Amino acid sequence: MSVQRGKDMLLKIEGAPEVFTTVAGLRARTISLNARTVDATDGDSAGRWRELLGGAGVKSAAVAGQGIFRDAASDALIREAFFAQEAKRWRLIVPDFGQLEGPFLVSALEYAGEHEGEATFAISLASAGEIGFSSL
Questions:
Q1: Considering the domain boundaries, does residue 1 fall inside one?
Q2: Residue 41's closest CA among 50, 30, 54?
Q3: How many structural domains comprise the chain?
Q4: What CATH number should be reported for the domain holding residue 76?
Q5: Has residue 115 been placed in a domain?
Q6: What's the farthest any 2 CA atoms get from each other in the chain?
Q7: In this structure, are residues 63 and 69 in contact, taking their beta carbons and an 8 Å threshold?
Q8: Do residues 98 and 133 touch, judged by C-beta distance below 8 A?
Q9: pLDDT tens for each residue of the chain, 136 residues long
Q10: Is 104 inside any structural domain?
Q11: For residue 91, how many other CB atoms are within 10 A of its CB?
Q12: Which domain covers residue 91, as residue numbers?
């Protein structure tokens, strides 16, 4: 993977089926992929080294973003998803890595603003089902 511009990472939310809208104005994004481990160590483990049971842990993904709202369509979709606490399909595009897609719940939505500056927001998403991956 070569050096990438952070602004090329895209976060999109599905409005109508298979119609994704880019979340506009994001200045920072973070995607975290996690897998819990299941310890299968017992008295017969070689040298008393920990053994992990492959494929048995819970997988999850978390996304965080910060920026400014600039687009009424994505603003409305995010706000509706948060207040309904409804899992929506999201698409996360990381150039030269791949694309993640699946249901996420808006777990946090923050608004802020300074007297002589623009209004900003921060969003956190938590995976709410199977997340698919495809290479770009």
A1: no
A2: 50
A3: 1
A4: 4.10.410
A5: yes
A6: 66
A7: no
A8: yes
A9: 555 555 568 899 999 999 999 987 788 889 999 999 999 999 889 988 999 988 888 999 999 999 987 778 888 999 999 999 999 999 999 888 899 999 999 999 999 988 888 888 999 999 999 999 999 8
A10: yes
A11: 17
A12: 6-134
